[in-house]
Amino acid sequence: MNVILKNIQKSFGHNHVLKGIDLGVENGEVVTILGPSGSGKTTLLRCINMLEYPDSGTITIDGLTVDATRPHKKNTLRLRQKTAMVFQLYNLFSHKTALENITEGPIVVQKIPKKQAIEKGEQLLDLVGLSDKASHYPHQLSGGQQQRVGIARALALNPEVILFDEPTSALDPELVGEVLVVMKKVAREGITMIVVTHEMSFARDIANRVIFMENGVIVEQNSPGEIFTNAKEERTRAFLKRITPEYAYEI
C-alpha cells in the first residue's frame, strides 16, 4: 500500500467531521471520493497531508507513519513532502508566471538546481498543453489554464500521491473538459491519485476505485462498474440517482 489511513478522526468544535476513516490506496491507484457537501471529503484530503491535523489515527505514506496524537514535526514535514495538492481555487502565486509557479517548490523546498527545475517545468507545461503560456501570469490565464498549471505544479514535486480537491468545481462548464483531459493523462502515467470530485465521467472511466462518503464515514467502496451499476448501499444509490439520472436506480 502506498497510502494507509487508520481510524482517522477529526472534529471542529462539536462537529464530528471524520468518524474513524480506514483506507488503503495502492501504488499507482486512482481513487475517487464522492459524496454530498459536508460529508468530510475535503477534510479527509487535508488530513492526509496534514494541512489539517487529525485528532487521532495514523497516516502512512510510502512507509512513513505519523501518529496524529503525537505528530513529530520532522516526520510531519516529510509526510507533506510525499504529497502534492491540486486545490479547488488553483492557489497560484499571482505575482509569478506559470513557469515560476511550477518551479517554485522544486527550487525553494527541494533545493533542485534552477536550470534543472526550469527544464522539468517546461516539460510539464508541454504535458498539460500550455507550452506557449510559460511567461503568462495567472490573471492572463483562464480558469482551466490556471488549474492545468496547478496540476503541473503538483507533478513538479514528484510526489508519492497527488490529492485533488474538487479540481473542476470552480470552472465554467466549457472549461471542465480541458482539465479532465489532463487528469486522465496524469492517471495513465501511473501516479497515485486521490480525487474528490463530482465529475462522474472521470470516476466512471478513469478511477480504479470509487468511494462514497457521507456523514464522516465511508459508506461504500468498489470498482466504478460495481458502484454505478450495482451499488450495495441504499444511501449510495440515492446519491447517484440524484446526480446521475442516467444511472437511476429503483429505490
Structure characterization notes:
With 251 residues, the chain is an alpha/beta fold. Helix content is 38%, strand content 25%. The protein contains nine helices and ten strands. The chain has helices at 41-48, 73-81, 98-109, 114-127, 143-156, 173-188, 200-205, 224-230, 234-243; strands spanning 3-12, 15-25, 30-34, 56-61, 64-67, 83-86, 161-165, 192-196, 209-214, 217-222. The strands form two sheets. A six-stranded mixed β-sheet has the order 6-7-8-3-9-10, with helices on both faces. Strands 2-1-4-5 form a four-stranded antiparallel β-sheet, with helices on one face. A hairpin with a 2-residue loop joins strand 1 (3-12) and strand 2 (15-25). The longest helix is centred in the last third of the chain and has 16 residues, at 173-188. The chain is globular. It starts with a strand and ends in an 8-residue tail after the last helix. The model has no long low-confidence stretch (mean pLDDT 93).
